[in-house]
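Margin note from the TA: students keep mixing up input and output lines. Inputs are the sequences; the output is the structure of the whole complex. Example:
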Amino acid sequence: MRKIIFPVFLLLIIGLLAAGIRQDNFVARQGWGLLSAEIMFLALILFYWGFEQGKTSSREIALIAVLSAIAAAGRIPFAALPNVQPTTFIVIVSGFVFGPQAGFAVGSTAALVSNFFLGQGPWTPWQMLAWGLAGVSAGLLKIFFPGAGRKWMIGFSFLWGYLYGWIMNIWFWAAFFQPLNWQTFLAAYSASFFLDTLHAAGNALFYAALGNSLIRILRRFQRKLTVEIIP
Amino acid sequence: MRKFFYAEKGLFLQSLHPLAALAFLGTMLVLALAFSHPLYLAGIFLVAGVTVWTAEGLETWESYLKIGLVMMTLIVLINALMVHEGRTILWRGPLIPVFGRITISLEAIYYGLAMGVRLLNVISIFCLFNLIVHPDKIINLFSRFAGKSTLVIALAARMFPVMAQRYENIRAVQQIRGVDFSRGTLKEKVQKSSLLINSLILSSLEDSLEIAESMQARAFGSGPRSRYRRHRWQPRDTLCLAGSAVALGAGLAGLFHGFGAYTFYPQMGCLVDGPGTVAVLLIVLSGLLAPAILNWGWHRCTFLRLKI
């Protein structure tokens, strides 16, 4: 049962996407506003299911919760600049050090928990997905390019400023525009360009200022978490 | 920032079982996204407004609607300027290199307005969620399916106010030392803020070890997770769930048979194209009004109050 859940969910998401592109079935007739939300929820469930299946110790759970709370508290505006906040940066560093699953958990929990205090909205699930994916991708970056240096990570953080905005825009474009052509796409996406640029610049500057030292702190802490039994 | 956005007011709607509340809000959300018929969208907006009013949340709703209206303006503008499917052309603009000739049609404005109402609906539904569902209730509801994730969420929700407070303290200390966070270029501001985050993380990471030890001391991970239910399922929940089920069933059946469908392009369709559209609309709205009606009964009718 456990083994088939992942492929079933993946097939379901691909099936919904494929059926949505063709215009002549009931999946497509419900409209992309609903369809994109369904796919997003399926993806979130899949990630959470993955986290539930993994072996997580009490120390890891407590650490993820603390990092999520710090990332969430980073959303409280402290500089008089919109969209410049350390949340994305903290999520990326957490994912890079502790792996994709922990990265997802930190990102999505930060989004959900901060909105318990700031106010939930249609943005919440998309923020959970976007920040979750930022953590996952940073974890994957570490797996495939373990030697990614400071410059690469600054570029990666910068890119996530835009990717985050683009993920948030998907639903805005899909639910409220018709026909879904590249003109409406460009117009909807260019509306957020300035804020996305600020976000990206903020991420890069945060990484440049703090990235390497934070990675060192978290690595040191990671060593404390693991217990090795010497035979 | 220390308290949840949700405020306990002892309201009838706040006493609903989280599952019933989620089913009601989920049904509204699905219907708001599934229907593009202006009458249905306006009807759902009305239901959302009435329910917000019964949840004594008009002030919160106002702040949500302000955000919604900004986004609605954007939706109307982009639809009007970028969509050229409408037949009733109001204005023919200049030729713009990437986007082609700008034309504004009545249909595109109308579609933009209808979608604006859809956005206000969605925003109002989430506003209602904030007003009537306590975060702990949701965490409790999902704890049986996802023990670890909800534990992380609950711990983080408990620590958020602590972190926010620490953040403020560290910031205050830095300010006394002469750091001015509002001055300087973007780079300088970010560098100053980095100092805050660094101190916050260094002082908080050790906490997580203490939490882990405390969890271990309470036998975390020693066997299957136990849980207890604080929320009883009451007749009011059954009635709300039934109302949502009727609304969802009627709405989806209506959509499947073509009631509540509406064509915007190339020319606007007739708002009321037959008795079926009105009938389905009335069933959907009365199903969705169930919580508001029950709230009225709870306050005004002693018999109903005793029964639900």
